[in-house]
Amino acid sequence: MKAHDGLYIDGAWRPAGSADGIEVVNPADEQVIARVPAGSALDVDTAVRAARAALPAWAATPPAERAARLAALRDVLAARKDEIAETVTAELGSPLPFSQAVHAAVPIAVAGSYADLAAAHPFEEKVGNSTVLHEPIGVVGAITPWNYPLHQIVAKVAPALAAGCAIVLKPAEDTPLTAQLFAEAVHEAGVPAGVFNLVTGLGPVAGRALAEHPGVDLVSFTGSTAVGRRIGAVAGAAVKKVALELGGKSANVILPSADLARAVNVGVANVMSNSGQTCSAWTRMLVHRDRYAEAVELAATAAAKYGDRIGPLVSARQRDRVRGYIEKGVAEGALLVAGGPESPRERGWFVSPTVFADVTPDMTIAQEEIFGPVLSILRYEDEDDALRIANGTVYGLAGAVWAAEEAEAVAFARRMDTGQVDINGGRFNPLAPFGGYKQSGVGRELGAHGLAEYLQTKSLQF
């Protein structure tokens, strides 16, 4: 697989400051498929300086022209969607059909949504005797994860471009090839030199340098809550804005009136999607005590169908982490009804689709984000008990509610401490704000709310 041996800075591929590199490994067969530069703090500084130099002209570019560049970016990504899917499959291990339907298609839709928003957004408005200006916040340091490598990049870079910001991107070291492909697309779309810059590298080196750099005005980070806390502390010391999309332990609440078979089957599919490596996955299924046994049986049967349909986890480190959680669940008394810690294949970083029953709210597997194909099923006594369990973690990213009547589900969802709730299997909406309550993050991504994160306001009084 083709990989650049340089960093994309100021509109060109340039050598990194050192010969250090990062090996890219295919999680399905454990073979090295490429090597990319490990950018240093000096490389980050060079990229930030390029972004600062490009910022004034890009910020002054009319929104209609910024929209045109975003539309061009959408079209380039659409033309290369097969290559995108193949690249994600190679470095993340996602099955090709899922890479085509989600990893490639969703970012194209999101890029298109920001082309439309850039053209239509009111960057100036009248408020009484004032004119309120919505201006770009400046240079953005975007630090993205490996689990949805292109979507997470587009969800940050597209609104930043629409707002008139310049960007330095530090992608996850596990999936840098998708980021390189995106840089090629940005170049082909005609985004001016320096407006977008890419530095591949390790989090403790390049990521930290980007978060700490005085030339960065906003740090947008998606990843673990632990790392998000450190970035927030660094940014806070410099009174720098952050947008943090962090962990989740989302509850799938199945109310007694719901279609149980549909709710359970969709819930299991949600957890197994992307091999469970989804921050918003509904990893806690809450079922009324009278229907609990039936739900457990349905979930175990459904999970068994995913045995040869899900891909590996991204790395040996991640596989071992998930296995550790499964072993912890057994040790704490949860009942294993599907899957387990044993590897289902001789090669590749695979974990079997796993379902636990008899999980109590205080168990580790009910409180901590596992980030693998592991579902915990909890019983509740009544709606107040279900709400207590649903809200009983430090996270509040996403969730789901099922009921025979939509109004019943909505009434429960309004009481949940979480940023996004799907009602009876509601579809993904790329224009709806995404982000969490509590320790699931600060700020929102996608749609107009995502664009607002990259803008600051100025008022002129007349």
Automatic annotation (TrEMBL):
<feature type="active site">
    <location>
        <position position="245"/>
    </location>
</feature>
<dbReference type="InterPro" id="IPR016161">
    <property type="entry name" value="Ald_DH/histidinol_DH"/>
</dbReference>
<dbReference type="InterPro" id="IPR016162">
    <property type="entry name" value="Ald_DH_N"/>
</dbReference>
<dbReference type="InterPro" id="IPR016163">
    <property type="entry name" value="Ald_DH_C"/>
</dbReference>
<dbReference type="Pfam" id="PF00171">
    <property type="entry name" value="Aldedh"/>
</dbReference>
<protein>
    <submittedName>
        <fullName>Aldehyde dehydrogenase</fullName>
    </submittedName>
</protein>
<comment type="similarity">
    <text>Belongs to the aldehyde dehydrogenase family.</text>
</comment>
<keyword id="KW-0560">Oxidoreductase</keyword>
<dbReference type="InterPro" id="IPR029510">
    <property type="entry name" value="Ald_DH_CS_GLU"/>
</dbReference>
<dbReference type="InterPro" id="IPR015590">
    <property type="entry name" value="Aldehyde_DH_dom"/>
</dbReference>
<feature type="domain" description="Aldehyde dehydrogenase">
    <location>
        <begin position="13"/>
        <end position="459"/>
    </location>
</feature>
